[in-house]
Amino acid sequence: MALRGLRGDPTGLLVSCRRILERHPTSGALWALAARTLTATDPAMELGLFGRLVDEDPTPEIVYNSLPEDATVCVLGWPDLAAEALVRRGDVSVLAVDVLGEGSGFAQRLRRADVDAECVPPAGLGAAVGSADLVLIEASAASAEGVLAVAGSRAAAAVSYCTELPVWAVVGHGRRLPAPLWGALLNRLSSGTDPWELDDEVVPAGTISHVIGPNGYALGTADLDRPECPAAPELLKLVSR
After folding, report:
1. Is the alpha carbon torsion for 180, 60, 106, 86 positive or negative?
2. Taking a C-beta distance cutoff of 8 angstroms, is the pair 145, 201 a contact?
3. Domain segments of the chain as ranges
4. Is the distance from CB of 106 to CB of 82 less than 8 angstroms?
5. Among 37, 42, 168, 240, fewest CB within 10 Å belongs to which?
6. pLDDT band at residue 212, thresholds of 50, 70 and 90?
7. 240 pLDDT exceeds 60?
8. pLDDT band for position 239 (cuts 50, 70, 90)
9. How far from 59 is each of 16, 17, 56, 153, CA to CA, in Å?
């Protein structure tokens, strides 16, 4: 809504989009929003359309319908879209790894909804994965190379891969980026910070068995290579700062 007020000011719109991404560099949906808005012939219409698509994202419903009955699911922290599905599935058990201090709150939320849930300390991540039937990793951004997810997700996916456990990447609407924007995002993410200090990390596509998103539930990672926005060159200048 704030950006709509700048529809008659292209320069102001560009500056505002850049500032938003400076503050939220790990949000794939905001990168897609900015790219689609800056390249649209009618920015206001594009903003409204993108907002509706995000609000009506069917991903949580697809996760809900795809989960096996009586499954034990391992998640990290407090996922956004996956949480909507898990709260409604009373037949599943959830192992919530307490990364960034969010797993304990999520486990409590699930228990209030009569979902069997345990909070697992970060040191128990490997054991939690080994005790689960599948791992849900929610992406804040994605590309053909993999997905960006909360810290600990790479280790969870690696353990799952070694034990042939399914890893489902939950990729909501607007989070799949073209290679140039994905590279710009990663450059902003890693600028001046040691990788082990970051709250987010890349999970390689090779460790992911399934992708769930607006297009449905699919085996493999081909859906990650379907960007939802153009590679707006105006946003690539962010990496030069």
Report:
1. negative
2. no
3. 3-56+230-240, 59-225
4. no
5. 240
6. very high
7. no
8. very low
9. 29, 26, 9, 20
Q: Rounded to an integer, what distance in angstroms lies between the CA atom of residue 35 and that of residue 16?
A: 12
pLDDT in tens, 110-147: 999 999 999 999 999 999 999 999 999 999 999 999 99
d(CA 231, CA 241): 19
Per-residue pLDDT, 6: 62
The answer on pLDDT for 232 being more than 70 is: yes
Pairing between β-strand 210-213 and β-strand 167-170 as defined by DSSP bridges? parallel
Mean pLDDT of 196-201: 93
CATH superfamily of 59-225: Translation initiation factor eif-2b; domain 2 (3.40.50.10470)
* Edge-to-edge strand ranges of the sheet holding 134-138: 116-120, 93-97, 72-76, 134-138, 167-170, 210-213, 216-219
Spatial separation of the C-alpha atoms in residues 147 and 207, rounded to whole Å: 10
Cα–Cα distance for residue pair 194/102, rounded to 1 Å: 22
Is residue 160 within 8 Å of residue 133, measured between CB atoms? Answer: no
Distance CA 196, CA 57 (A): 32
Closest CA to 42 of 16, 2, 13, 21: 13
Question: pLDDT for 100-111, tens place per residue?
Answer: 999 999 999 999
